[in-house]
Design a protein that fits this description.
Strand 7 and strand 8 form a beta hairpin. This protein has a six-stranded mixed beta sheet, with helices on one face. Strands 7-8 form a two-stranded antiparallel sheet. The relative contact order is 0.09. The radius of gyration is 24 Å and the shape is elongated. The protein is an alpha/beta fold. Helix 1 runs antiparallel to helix 2, helix 1 packs antiparallel against helix 4 and helix 2 crosses helix 3. 54% of the residues lie in helices and 14% in strands.
C-alpha cells in the first residue's frame, strides 16, 4: 500500500472536503432553509478551504503510532483556520447578514466533530489491515541494550502500528549473532546503511546509550541519502533515575 500513499492522501483530503460541504445542505434541510446560491457558495468554499487548511497544518502526515488526540487537535486547528478564512471572506464581501447564525454556527461545530469521527474510523480500518499483515512498515533498531529492547517490546506489543522489526544492530560483538525478543542482532552499527538499502527499510530507531552520541550522529548523517525515516529514542531511564523534571528556557526543553 505504500506505493499508493499519495493517492490515498488525495482521496482522504477529497472525502474530508466532501464531508464539510455536505454538512451545510444537511443542516439547511433540517432547519427548513432553502439551500440557495449563497449557501451553495458557502458550502463549496468550506470544502475548498478545508482542503487548503488541512494541508497547511499537515493533517495528512503519517500518524502511525501517534496518539489519536494529537491528530484530533491538528484536525481542530485546521478547521479553525478554515473557519477564520470563511469569516474573513464573508466580512470582506459584506455577506454575513444573509446567513442564518444558527445554521452556520451549528455547521462550524458539527463539521470538525464529523472529521474527527471519520479519521477515527479510518484509523480503526488501518489497524485492522495492519493486524492482518497489510499496510506494514519495516524497521530496525540500533542498540540492543535495555533501551533498544524496550523499543522492540513496545513495537511488538502494538501490532496495530503495523511495524515489522527486521533486525538489531549493535557495536557489542558479544551480541552479534544472537536473538533478542525473536529479533536477530545482525551486525555492528557501521553496516547499517548497506542493510537499509538492501532491505528497503522504512524506519530506523536510534536507541543507543547517551555515551554513544557520536555514533548516533554518524549513523544519522550516513542515512540522510536513504529513504528511511530515522527516529532518535532518548534514554528516558536516566531521567527517571535522576527524578528529572522538564523545564523550558526560551522554548528549549531542559531537565533539572
Amino acid at each position: 500500500m505504500r506505493r499508493y500513499h499519495v493517492w490515498l492522501v488525495v482521496v482522504q483530503r477529497f472525502v474530508d472536503a466532501l464531508v464539510v460541504w455536505a454538512g451545510l445542505p444537511t443542516l439547511c434541510w433540517l432547519n427548513d432553509q432553502v439551500f440557495n446560491q449563497p449557501y451553495q457558495l458557502a458550502a463549496i468554499l468550506g470544502g475548498i478551504l478545508t482542503w487548503v487548511a488541512m494541508g497547511a497544518v499537515d493533517a495528512y502526515r503519517p500518524w502511525r503510532g501517534a496518539n489519536y488526540w494529537q491528530e484530533s487537535r491538528v484536525l481542530t486547528g485546521g478547521w479553525l483556520l478554515a473557519v477564520a478564512m470563511l469569516l474573513a471572506i464573508a466580512w470582506l464581501t459584506k455577506t454575513t447578514e444573509i446567513y442564518s447564525r444558527l445554521i452556520v454556527g451549528t455547521w462550524f461545530i458539527v463539521a470538525p466533530l464529523a472529521l474527527i469521527a471519520l479519521h477515527a474510523l479510518e484509523r480503526k480500518a488501518m489497524r485492522f489491515l495492519r493486524r492482518h499483515g497489510r499496510n506494514t512498515r519495516t524497521a530496525i533498531i540500533l542498540g540492543a541494550g535495555s533501551l533498544g529492547q524496550e523499543v522492540a517490546q513496545r513495537i511488538q506489543e502494538s501490532e496495530w502500528m503495523g511495524i515489522r522489526l527486521l533486525a538489531f544492530f549493535d557495536d557489542d560483538k558479544r551480541r552479534v549473532g544472537k536473538e533478542i525478543a525473536g529479533v536477530p542482532v545482525v551486525d555492528s552499527c557501521e553496516h547499517v546503511k548497506e542493510y537499509v538499502q538492501e532491505h528497503d527499510v522504512d524506519k530506523v530507531f536510534l536507541a543507543l546509550p547517551m555515551r554513544s552520541e557520536s555514533r548516533s550522529r554518524e549513523v544519522f548523517d550516513d542515512l540522510q541519502d536513504t529513504t528511511a525515516s530515522v527516529y532518535w529514542v532518548p534514554d528516558i531511564f536516566i531521567f527517571e533515575m535522576l527524578q528529572a523534571r522538564e523545564q523550558d528556557i526560551g522554548g528549549l526543553p531542559v531537565f533539572a
